Every structure is written in C-alpha cells, then in structure tokens.
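S1.2 Input.
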Amino acid sequence: MIVNGLRNYAKLKGNMPTINFILADGTEHAIDGEVGTPVMYLAKRNELSGILAECGGMCCCATCHVHIDPRWISKLPKMEDDEQETLEFAEGVDDMSRLSCQIKITDEIDGLIVHVPEFQYFPAAKNER
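S1.3 Output.
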C-alpha cells in the first residue's frame, strides 16, 4: 500500500513518465516507470508478453527488440555501436528498431510508444523453409 502511495506521489510530482506498449495482438498498456529505468525492465516487471530479455539487459541477445513509433524515434538518444551490432541478430529489424534494454526512461520520453513484435525469433516453421 505504501509503495503504491509513493508511486502515485511520484507521478503527481512528474517523476513517473508513461511508456505506452502496443503488443502484437493490438493490446495497449500504458505503464508508469521510474526515471532511469530501462524500458525493458518496465515491460518485464509488468509481465508484458513479447519481450523475452534473455540476457537480462546486457545488450547481447536482442530478445528485447522493439519497434519505436516513428513519431518518437528522433527523441531517443542515438544508438550505440553495441546495440547496432546486437540488432543484427534480431528478426524483423527496421529503421524503428531498438533494444528496449538500451532505452532509459526520462521525462523527455513521457508518452513514448513502443511496438512489441510478435516474435523475438522466427517461429520454427519459418526456420524449416
């Protein structure tokens, strides 16, 4: 109860930006997160499907790959070389792709829209072709 009260107080004080997740099935989740927390941790803490995060945020597995809404991509910090290299192992990468473990929540990205892909890996049927 106290934790919820503190979170509500933080939100009132402007310290809890909202991140909007859109899952592959179209389900939308607006979740408040603490400044400085990676977007991936917010998704995992709230048990959102589609973000596996197998490496725990170490930027080495690409299983937290997401697509950033085009209106937001320019508002994020520039991608570092290690993130770019790791994305080479992700499926369905495009110009809006980022690793959610590398995006830290800030006040500037309050309202960020993140699209979670259907798969972090190609399904087995596609691999057999």
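S1.4 Remarks. Strands lie at 18-22, 28-32, 65-68, 97-99, 113-115.
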